[in-house]
């Protein structure tokens, strides 16, 4: 498993078939609105957990903490796409060209990589980020004196996943707001009768003031794989810097046996503290201007 740190207009439709497309769009919106209303009736918690239509009409759940912090989680991809502090400041980054029509994974926030990180036998980063997750439960009473809003999402195998990865599984993803802290927990269970291996990552994009001002601390002395020159044969190096910075080129490094705590300084004087348990590696990645489609 790996923890990821990332700092970081659709073309117009053809002229023909406009009326059919618009009618189909209205039908999709109605279906989404109905689904959101049903979710709100079943799982909504006044003042803490609210199901709303997100971008593109996609169902999403808003977690609202009494301190003023909030988070928005899309059921498509099980992706956290917003995490705001009580001040209203956004912590995560979503690309301005992100698409919310299910034609591709949502580009930004906290996408899933499962059951494969990066390229491999199946599609890039696996399938979890481009499937609808189901709502298993919600709660807001973990701490009666200061309720922590929480949603638990579930993803299981289906015909689509079995064609790529012939294993039965149940992935349970819990997102919680504990004050201004965003807590995530991913558990993967084998529900079949044969063992399997997988790799996974929470492919997090963080918003920074400017790439030149951002830096990551807590990685000095670690061995890392530098994939910036040759991702298939990355050079193994030892990190000598007190703080990992981002220049004009591609940064794509996998830090092995990373500590549970690292920090990303975002350039405003503030830092995002990242604490991870069960994730053995940390990936630091930023394409800057080196990639047209990242």
Which descriptors apply to this entry?
globular, 11% helix, single chain, mainly beta, 2 helices, 294 residues, 4-stranded antiparallel β-sheet, 8-stranded mixed β-sheet
Quick recap of the structure?
By secondary structure, the chain is mainly beta.
Task: Explain what this protein looks like in three dimensions.
It is globular, with a radius of gyration of 20 Å. The chain has helices at about 20-45, 160-165, and strands at about 1-5, 50-55, 60-65, 70-75, 80-85, 110-115, 135-140, 150-155, 170-180, 180-190, 200, 205, 215, 225, 235-240, 245, 250-255, 260-265, 270-275, 280-285. The protein is mostly beta strands.
Uncertain stretches of 5 or more adjacent residues: 6-29
Helix/strand-derived category reads mainly beta
Strand content: 25-35%
Q: Which sequence of SSEs, written as H and E, runs from N to C?
A: EHEEEEEEEHEEEEEEEEEEEE
Helix share, percent: 10-25%
Instruction: Give the termini separation.
Output: 22 Å
Shape descriptor reads globular
The radius of gyration computed from the alpha-carbon positions, rounded to a whole number of angstroms, is 20 Å
Number of helices: 2
What is the averaged pLDDT score?
A: 88
Number of strands: 20
Major pleated sheet: 8 strands, mixed
